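Trying the structure run again after the queue cleared.
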Amino acid sequence: MWLDTIRSELCEHVFNSSFQKNWDVHWCNEIKILLDGDDMDLELFSERIREIFLSASGGNRAPEQAGLQWRKFLWCILSILSTADNELVILGKPMMKRIVPKLIVEKLSISIGDKPGLTHNPEFIILNLDNPLLKEEEINANNFKVLLEKNPELVRDITVVWSKTNFNDTIQQPMLWAKLGMLKSSEFAYNIKHAWVTVPSQKPEIFRPNTTPFHRAHIFDGGSYWGIGKQEVFGMSSILDMISNWRDRIPILQSSDVIEKSIFYSNLGLK
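Done. Tokens:
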């Protein structure tokens, strides 16, 4: 819970009028299952993430708006699951600039030669941090970046998250960027992985195993995930599986002491 204050402060970069409305009306009550559901409830929730998102996305929303809503929804799910451990989920340029040191940003940057427009800077990452941060006093979003600049070894590993609302040929572009990122990351001490995550917006019954999108998804060394639960036949995992050992963390997340003390849960309207 030591990152609770930082997560609560980062909410300001996630919640705006549009997302706030969808959160209040559609998503907040659904996501509360993480704090009070049993094993069966959580399995059903992982299978319904697509359904929950589509119920709030609206039919006339532009693709880029839907994609941003999807990533913000993911940020909330992953941040809740990570409150029992040391991950910090970072989404968007303002949050990256506020939290992530320049040294790490440079390591995550992917370039093809030196021509303009051939560089990609990931804006959705998960930092896995080390326990010595527990010894620090008054950690907040404003001094956290300085802390990491002075102690870069506190970052154990990083997952770059590549996210789209659909699952078809659009996976090709992030797949190729991620492949370049994987080649570059072999040069550094940081363990940097790349993960693919999708809604998917298409109807699940149209998917067939061993088709091109799935071959492409399996290239990501950080795993591939979607909002319709874990399905071995496709080699795809549940969105909840993006946070390691999430099942073991649920008793901590659901403890009355944690729920009562959490500023982050309060900011999300979960208590």
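The two ends are 16 Å apart (CA to CA). Worth checking whether this holds up in the mutant runs.
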